[in-house]
Design brief:
alpha+beta, two-stranded antiparallel sheet
């Protein structure tokens, strides 16, 4: 029994081994045909059988797994050579070779894009018509043969298109499955910790509320509110990612937002001291809730992966924009990970148990505002810059001290 993984798949190895099976069957049928051909032609068919067997052996070698996806196409050269020679040996009669032309075109359509089918067509046409012309077949036969290869081309192109369609559907299903797995992972890890804190606070207040000093009760309540806000941000981020994935954009309720208050509100969720450089009452055109989410995502990323001091600097940017730089002094982002920095699920901005959506969501939200989020290496550390439309011209930044 032929093992399934030897033949079924989409790698160059699977493609080569499928054609190897066709070549081996062709070699076997050629050997059988030796019994019914004149002795003068047996040498030709014996050579054809040997060529097919050698090509089948080469196609079966494991080396194809290390070659580019288009590499198995070279195997069509011995296949078409054998088919052309068999038509010539049969006096220009293609009855025996035609089914193998069909199988080769089907194989090409299954494993290669439609443009490859079109590129191979002239070679196949020469292999099919050349022997007939050399044998002097009458024009009616030649005309029907001329129509045969374009028909095979159309069939192979339809197969290639259909395979590509199914491949895209499968990739979409895989992305959806990965998205569901990410949601499960997030709920299992990111939500459990803040829920545990909220539950602890509620149980403490339930059992010891009267015995606790007012300051301690206030601290516990603030802790619970902060953790509840963390859960809310997580849920909002996941919903945003789902909307972006489904609709490609977000609906925003933009207004004039003072950056000072927006930054202070975002810093209230953090306990790490962060220095803010901002002069005057700079305002941006933004959705307040989305702006807060952008800032929290970038600041949280800096706290998780960077090192103090962490700074936020507001400065004017070209095109009537405001730039907000979030700078840390940590180890920075390795060069190999920078290209996928803003990719969903890249893990670049993900702490253990997280799904790595923060930077991706921040960029998508900024772009929905007409701005962007970009990465710049610093020495040391990293600098993420979010640009947003300015309401008033932004003055040069000045240091106004630490915020937390």
């Amino acid at each position: 029994m032929v093992r399934r993984w030897f033949l079924l798949g989409e790698s160059p190895l699977h493609a080569a081994r499928q054609l190897a099976l066709l070549l081996a069957v062709g070699a076997l049928l050629t050997v059988v045909k030796l019994l019914s051909v004149p002795a003068a032609q047996q040498g030709i068919y014996l050579a054809l059988a040997a060529l097919q067997a050698a090509a089948a052996a080469a196609a079966w070698c494991p080396i194809w797994r290390r070659l580019p996806p288009q590499a198995p196409l070279v195997l069509t050269l011995p296949a078409f050579t054998v088919l052309a020679t068999s038509i010539w040996a049969a006096g220009g009669v293609a009855a025996a070779a035609a089914p193998f032309f069909v199988l080769v075109f089907v194989w090409i359509g299954l494993h290669f894009p439609a443009r490859t089918v079109l590129a191979v067509t002239p070679v196949a046409l020469a292999a099919y018509l050349g022997p007939m012309l050399l044998a002097g077949r009458d024009p009616a036969v030649i005309t029907s043969a001329i129509l045969f290869i374009p028909t095979l081309t159309a069939v192979a192109v339809m197969i290639a298109r259909q395979v590509d369609h199914h491949r895209r559907d499968r990739d979409a299903l895989r992305r959806a499955e990965r998205w569901r797995a990410a949601l499960t992972s997030t709920l299992a890890h990111d939500v459990r910790s803040p829920l545990t804190s909220v539950r602890f606070v509620l149980e403490t207040l339930h059992d010891e509320a009267e015995a606790l000093p007012p300051d301690q009760r206030r601290t516990l309540i603030e802790t619970a509110l902060r953790q509840a806000a963390r859960i809310h941000r997580l849920a909002a981020g996941l919903l945003d990612a789902d909307r972006i994935d489904a609709e490609g954009r977000l609906r925003l309720e933009t207004t004039s937002v003072p950056l000072r208050s927006a930054i202070d509100d975002a810093l209230a969720y953090l306990t790490t001291p962060i220095t803010v450089h901002l002069a005057g009452d700079v305002k941006v055109r933004a959705d307040p809730a989305r702006l807060e989410q952008i800032l929290i995502n970038l600041l949280t990323n800096a706290v998780r992966h960077g090192e103090p001091p962490i700074t936020v600097t507001v400065r004017p940017a070209p095109g009537a924009m405001v730039a907000i730089d979030v700078r840390d002094h940590g180890p920075g982002v390795p060069p190999g990970r920078r290209q996928a920095l803003f990719s969903r699920f890249s893990g670049t901005d993900a702490a253990p148990g997280s799904v790595g959506l923060g930077l991706w969501i921040a960029r998508e939200l900024a772009r929905a505002h007409g701005g962007d989020v970009t990465y710049h290496p610093a020495d040391p550390g990293t600098r993420f810059t979010v640009t947003l439309p300015a309401v008033d011209p932004a003055p040069p930044p000045v240091d106004e001290g630490a915020r937390s």
